[in-house]
Structures are given as structure tokens and as C-alpha cells.
Amino acid sequence: MLKTPVQTVKERLLAGGALLPDTAENVLEVVGILKSYGVVLGHYWENLIYMSQGQFLVLFPFFKYFNGEVNWGKLLRHWNHDRINYEFSEYCMRAMLWHGSPPLDQYLDSPEFNELAQGAIQAKIQGNVFMQFLHRCFPEFLPEQVKLMVYTSVLGQFWRVMSPLFLDLSDRYDRGEITTIKNVVDHIRMGLIQAAPAPIIYDVKINGDIYPLLTPAAGLDFLTAAAVPYVEAVFFRSFPFMGTVSYNAQAYQIPADQGDFNYGALYADPLPIGGAGIPPTLLMQDMRHHLPDYLLERYRHSTRGLADVRVKICETFQKSMFCVTTAAIQALAPHPLTSSDPQERRVNDRYVELWVQRLSDSRLLAVQG
Fold first, then answer.
1. What's the helix, strand, coil split of the chain in %, to 5?
2. 257 by DSSP, 3-state: which?
3. Would you give the distance in Å from CA 180 to the centre of its chain?
4. Distance CA 357, CA 83 (A)
5. How many CA atoms lie within 13 A of 75 on its CB side?
6. Within the chain, how many helices (H) and strands (E) appear?
7. Fewer CB within 10 A of the end CB, N or C, for the chain?
8. Cα separation of 56 and 203, whole Å?
9. DSSP code of residue 272
10. Rounded to whole angstroms, how far apart are CA atoms 228 and 313?
11. Sign of CA dihedral 244, 248, 249, 251
């Protein structure tokens, strides 16, 4: 009996392989796109951290994308769209906020956090009659804005780890140390494992005083509070693109339960990329400016050349995200996937089967060719 493509992928995973086939072409594309992505993430995380600190409870943050440096040169480049599209980083942050991070949300709903948030709010609105009046009329508004800032900081902290991890991968490839997809996955997995226990903390400085919001006592770590929720919200669920489907409940074009959303990076159709109103277009445009020469040459000599380069970047980016997902699958596995113990292999088989079933409707099969 012939194996289905899904069965082939499952067996490859259980043998220690990846969701993406191991070919020299895939290695070149994945490493090249992750180098570009690492550069872009460097800009994204710096701005998110700045926003969580310098734009804390600023209701009209007109200059939130300027990282505290506002001058005519930056303004002119900003108005001319000669800049990094920080809007995409906010799009990802709001996806995380909406879909949630269970350990983080549990803490944000606790009396301990509410007390800390109220202390920061009172310090921020001191002497501001309008903000004080607003807080009295709508007592839940500013606490929700604090939670928004928390998620902004958490995503910034996550990307602050991932950016140098991807750039180091590129450096190792240039030195000849990365030659297979397995090497790519191993590099990412080890980076995730090393960062896993790192604490997620957050405080703000108001009028010279420090106000903690996420303290070490909260017990939030990189893996469970940031990495896993990010994969769930951005890789799997995300949001349907405005203008491509109707948000009207009577149209039944999107699931009624947000847990059934499958609009994430692993599911998205690359063809609309480049169109107005499609958020990933912003990311693809940013990455286009930082592609290594060898990947740009590959695109230039492929069908249609650079005419549809954003679509090509999206397709390559999805390949790379399947490698990141493989690293997450391996890192979270109940036992090493290459274990020879029969009991452990049965447990791993069930574990991998659940992942493969969930990914069966994604772009998984499209990247197997």
C-alpha cells in the first residue's frame, strides 16, 4: 500500500527528521530567509520594548514607531514609507493578546497584578485631570491598556531571543557548519531549550520611579509564557485577512469559535501577499530589503523573476516556519523522537499524530515538493 504524504511526514518526524524535506535547495532558502527575518525582528523587538516603556499609557502615541528619536529626517522617511513596517509587529502582538497566553493571562487576572497595575496607573495619571476623569468614568479602560503593554513587552522579549538565534544560524551556514535541514532544526531547538527557563519580567519607569508589573515571583518563563503562545497565536490561529473574507456572523465565512481559527503563518495562502490590507505583506516588504545575495539571485532566476518576489518570500518564509515548528515539536516531545524504547515510541507516535493531524490542512503538503 502506498503511503500518503501525511504518513511520510509523520514517519520522517519520528525518525528525527523535519516537517520540511531535507534538500540543498530548502537549506539555502530557509537559512537565507531566516537571516533576513532575523534582521527585521531586531528592529521589531527594539520598537516593541520601546513602546512598552516609553509609550506606557500614552493614549495617542503618534511617534510610537520612532523609538524616542523624532526629527525631520525620520519624519520625512516615515511619510515616504522608507522605513520598517512596525505595524506588523503590533499585528502579531494583538494576535497573541486576543488568543491569549494561559500562564500569562492567569497572572494578569490575579489580585497581585491588579494591585501592581493600579500603582503604575496612579503614578502615570498623577496631575493629569483628563486621565483621572477618564479612569473614574471607565475604571477598566486603563487596566486593559496596561495588559496591552504587557503583551507588547512579552513579544518584544520573545523576538529579542529569536533575532540573534536566526542571525547566528546564518553565520554558521556561511562557515559551512549548517548543511542540512536537520542542522537548522537542531540549531533552533537548542536555542529554544537554552532560553526556555529565562524569566519574563516587565517594569516601567514613571517620574523616575520603577513600577514592576511582571515580577520574578510571577513564575513566568520564556517557553510557556511567550514561545508556545506565540506559536499558537501566530503560526496557527492569527486572524482572517480583512477584505478576503466577511466578518459578518451571518455570512459564516469564519469560525464562530476562535479556537478553530487557522489563519496563521503555516496556513496562509501566499498568493494574496502584496495586496493592500494583507498584514504579512508588510513583513515580506521588510524582509525583501535584507535578503542575502544568494537568495535574491535564486529568486531572480526563477519563474517570473522578481515580479512576484513577495509571494516567493512568503513561500520561503513558510518553509522556514515549518522548521521552527519542527524544533518546537521536538522540544516539547514527551520523549526523544529517536528513542528506541517501545513504550516511549508509542507515546511519541500518539504525540506526533496529533501534530500531523492539526497540520494536515496547512501548507504542509505544498512544501513537500
1. 65, 5, 35
2. coil
3. 24
4. 40
5. 5
6. 14, 2
7. N
8. 10
9. T
10. 24
11. negative
Q: Residue 6 to residues 21, 36, 256, 317, 329: CA-CA distances in angstroms?
A: 12, 30, 28, 21, 16
Of 104, 84, 93, residue with least CA distance to 224: 104
Contact call for residues 328 and 18 (beta carbons, < 8 A): no
For the chain, list residues with pLDDT below 50: none
Rounded to whole angstroms, the Cα distance separating 291 from 303 reads 18
Q: Helix or strand or coil: residue 67?
A: coil
Q: Alpha-carbon distance 52 to 42, whole Å?
A: 16
d(CA 155, CA 225): 10
Asked if residues 328 and 231 have their Cβ atoms less than 8 Å apart, the reply is: yes
Hey, what's the torsion of the CAs at 106, 107, 110, 112, to 10 degrees?
170
Q: Give the tens place of pLDDT for each residue, 13-72.
A: 998 899 999 999 999 999 999 999 999 999 999 999 999 999 999 999 999 999 988 889
Report residue 292: phi and psi, to 5°: -65, 155
Do the beta carbons of residue 18 and residue 185 sit within 8 Å?
A: yes
Does residue 177 sit in helix, strand or coil? coil
E strand or H helix that includes residue 121: helix 111-125
Long-range contacts of 218-221 (CB under 8 A, 24+ apart): 218/107, 218/112, 218/113, 219/103, 220/103, 220/104, 220/107, 221/196, 221/197
DSSP sequence for 124-155: HHTT-HHHHHHHHH-TTHHHHHHHHHHHHHHH
Task: Copy the grid coordinates of residue 12.
Answer: 520522517
Total-model pTM: 0.93
Strands 202-206 and 209-214: antiparallel
